[in-house]
Write a structure and sequence with these properties.
Chains A, B: It comes from Roseovarius aestuarii. Chains A, B: Keywords: DNA-binding, Transcription, Transcription regulation. The structure is a homodimer. With about 280 residues, chain A is α/β, with parallel strands linked by helices. Chain A has 2 domains: about 90 residues, Arc Repressor Mutant, subunit A, CATH 1.10.10.10; about 160 residues, Rossmann fold. The first copy, chain A, has a 5-stranded parallel β-sheet, sandwiched between helices. In chain A, helix 7 packs across helix 12, helix 8 crosses helix 12 and helix 9 runs parallel beside helix 12. The first copy, chain A, is elongated. The two termini of chain A are about 45 Å apart. Chains A and B meet through helix 1, helix 2, helix 5, helix 7 and helix 8 of A and helix 5, helix 7, helix 8, helix 9 and helix 11 of B. Chain B binds a DNA duplex (30 and 30 nucleotides) through helix 2, helix 3 and helix 4.
Chain lengths: ~280, ~280
DNA sequence: TATTGACTGAAAAATTATTTCCAATCATGC
DNA sequence: GCATGATTGGAAATAATTTTTCAGTCAATA
């Protein structure tokens, strides 16, 4: 039996620190287990005795047998890609693996719905230095939008994240000029105030890039580019993981295309951040 | 340098038994080297001292370093049966689909590293009405953490999202009581101030649930539960999509388990929200 | 054939890793 | 609240592994 499975089987009877240990081992399986008991102890923040007890608990004679087995698995595993492949489809179907699988499927959908062409076009837009970029999302999706503006800010200047409170919007709208960009994330339960914002921005000549779901937010009307992403998870709630993946893809592509600039900027950034570091440990 | 190459480079100055040894190691590389010096000695038909001398000769400090290096090589090399596979054909599907596929792969890893058991346990903890839940994340990951607190707030009372500014933390810490929960998301570039927060919370008797990457944030020391999620995207930047998926899975599970309560709460919530809606369209 | 020097492995020593024991702590049930 | 039992990590004991020492062997050479 695989060590991994032994751990999962024993999951029910593990003590708190043993669970920490299990997490540490599984998080970089099997390599995390291929160090001395002391190093593993330090890494997992538990004591060596706890590890010793743990390996006994999962039915092994001792730490050494544990390691020998891990190495044997590694050796085996590399030989039979078939087995590995089987592992990728856990039919056992716990809630988590089930959910993840669904999300995974949705992610595939998103890459199908967005053409590489459009993707490249949007990257180019967002990377254009002379266009300032304004970013905002809906009540929930703003946190996704935040990741875009955060990373974008590391790569270029002129990136602004609009606050949720529309009282402050005029300040940003006044600054917007012809050719600037407004990146909006708006998923169902579309917010009327975002629509108003986009209308105004559009009137001012800003290009709007909209990330939305398949029902298409009314903002689509003003958008120069619409990035459709699937948000149905097959459950009662929506999933934003595909949306996040697309945003991360954008950010990564832009960063790679402008690598030197980005690196320089991050370096300068970090240098400044150090000066007001909170609590040096 | 790879051990293999070190051996080949040294081939000229090897003694007869060292050559036997080299052959034994290379014949089942790198697994043959991953046993005790005595087993390897027996297998290669030489004495342990010869092995010791050998590893020194090829420029390593000792047998242990030799093994550590072999494992590191293995990890590096196998790090990406997937990644490498993709790197070979990055153009095929285009940047986006390539990126999405990688992310997808990572998501599968996360469901392998988190046991269903642990998942269920954490859901139970977060759903316990009498424990208040405090949520916070790192500079970037806080936006992921936000989605947890946001949705959790829809399902139960006593959910607080700590502000990024640590000036305000004491207020929350004062409120924390024995048995309360602190859910922390902390990915690499771990923030010292979060560690301090967790230490204090832990001292106050709060249970800490930590979502982190495989390098394990130092907060693991105080954590009752550690949720490891993969964040490597195979590019220069990390991806939080798997983390988000896990959080969404948590939220969904909790909502489904407490469906009536959640529905009633959302209904009441929406009723209140309508009264101060910003701009009716 | 004797001498030299390199090579080797047995045994001892040193080091390192692992396990056991135990006291302190923590949580739990009464 | 108090007692009980489980859990935990430090320290000691144990075990294992690795390295060093050293004497014997062998081959090459004079």
């Amino acid at each position: 039996m695989l060590i991994k499975d032994r751990i999962k089987d024993a999951a029910g009877i593990l003590t708190p620190s043993e669970r920490k240990l299990a997490a540490a081992i599984l998080s970089d399986y099997p390599y995390a287990g291929l160090v001395s008991i002391q190093d593993l102890a330090k890494h997992a923040e538990v004591s060596p005795p706890s590890i010793s007890r743990f390996v006994t608990k999962i039915g092994l004679a001792g730490y050494q047998e544990f390691q020998r087995d891990l190495i044997a698995e590694l050796k085996e595993g590399q030989r039979s890609p078939v087995d590995l492949h089987m592992e990728n489809r856990p039919i056992e179907g716990g809630f988590l693996s089930d959910f993840i699988q669904r999300t995974t499927r949705q992610m595939a959908v998103s890459s199908a719905a967005i053409t590489e062409d459009q993707f490249a076009r949007i990257c180019t837009l967002l990377a254009t230095p002379k266009s300032e970029v304004h970013v905002i999302g809906g009540r929930v999706s703003d946190s996704i939008a935040f990741l875009l503006s955060f990373h974008l800010r590391q790569m270029r200047q002129g990136v602004y994240h609009l606050p949720a409170n529309n009282e402050a919007w005029p300040e940003y709208l006044l600054r917007m000029k012809q050719g600037d960009l407004l990146f909006v994330v708006d998923f169902r339960r579309y917010q009327p105030n975002l629509l108003g914002l986009c209308q105004t921005a559009h009137d001012k000549g800003a290009k709007i890039i909209l990330m939305t779901d398949k029902w298409l937010s009314p903002i689509a009307k003003y958008a120069a580019e619409v990035l459709p992403v699937p948000i149905e998870s097959g459950t009662l709630w929506d999933t934003y993981a595909p949306a996040l993946a697309v945003i991360e893809a954008l950010v990564t592509k832009i960063a790679e295309d402008n690598f030197d600039q980005t690196r320089a900027r991050i370096k300068a950034w970090d240098a400044l951040r150090l000066t007001d570091q909170d609590v040096p440990s």
